[in-house]
Amino acid sequence: MSAAALDRLAGDGRRVTAWWRDDDARTATPELERLLALAKTHALPLALAVIPVGAEPALAERLAGEAGVTVLLHGHAHANHAPPGEKRAEFGDHRSAEAMRTEIAVGKARLETLFGERFRPVFVPPWNRIGETVRALLAGLGLPTVSVYGSAKPAVEGGPAELNTHLDVMDWRAMRGLTFDAVDERLAELIDTRAGAAAGAEPIGLLTHHLQHDESAWALTDRLLALLAAHPAVAWDGPALLPITK
């Protein structure tokens, strides 16, 4: 289904842009090794969203020399501050602006110190949820881009740009990988939507969580990457899409 959609694009001489974000890294683990091996096998760029609290020098040491791997700011401690009965969020509108501003600034400084030029100033809120208070703070904290899940909101003057993900390999209710057919249908919809859009359509973002994957999620990720990496209708411009720290 998605392969046919890509073939139609290629036949028309058109392409979609894709990128890949993986969340929740803190240190070097066997799961991280498996993730990096996939990126290397398919020769694809990978944006790793790292949690500042608990981020270890071992992670920076492991990524040293890994071409095409960038680091994004994944919240602060990945702690839920939402009241009971609400969806989990670390940076929703549940706390004071000053407390959240401080956490983001500290986390950004931590990742800049650990990862240097590998760090890109993109804020990835845990659970892909962010309040309007925090959105308004990001540009002033040197974070011009936010990355969540779903279609980008219209740009607001002075607010962050969005570089989002749209294709999650996990079935979070069952805590296992989705079926290929389910993801393939979603991917075909994303491709067709962008095929009918003007130039500059929103990139398609693949979302993975290496520490949460079961074997079905790993197999699905490998199959998706194989499809998307090899197809002439897909441009993997990941690093070019991410802002650089000034």
Automatic annotation (TrEMBL):
Coiled-coil annotated spans: none
Pfam family, one: Polysacc_deac_1
Superkingdom to which the source organism belongs: Bacteria
Single GO term (MF): hydrolase activity, acting on carbon-nitrogen (but not peptide) bonds
CDD domains referenced in this protein's UniProt entry, alphabetically: CE4_u4
SUPFAM superfamilies linked: Glycoside hydrolase/deacetylase (SSF88713)
Residues in NodB homology domain copies: 22-145
GO biological process, alphabetically ordered: carbohydrate metabolic process
InterPro entries, sorted: CE4_u4-like, Glyco_hydro/deAcase_b/a-brl, NODB_dom
Biological function: Is involved in generating a small heat-stable compound (Nod), an acylated oligomer of N-acetylglucosamine, that stimulates mitosis in various plant protoplasts.
Stated family: Belongs to the polysaccharide deacetylase family.
Protein name: Chitooligosaccharide deacetylase
Organism: Jiella pacifica
Highest classification ranks of the organism: Bacteria, Pseudomonadati, Pseudomonadota, Alphaproteobacteria, Hyphomicrobiales
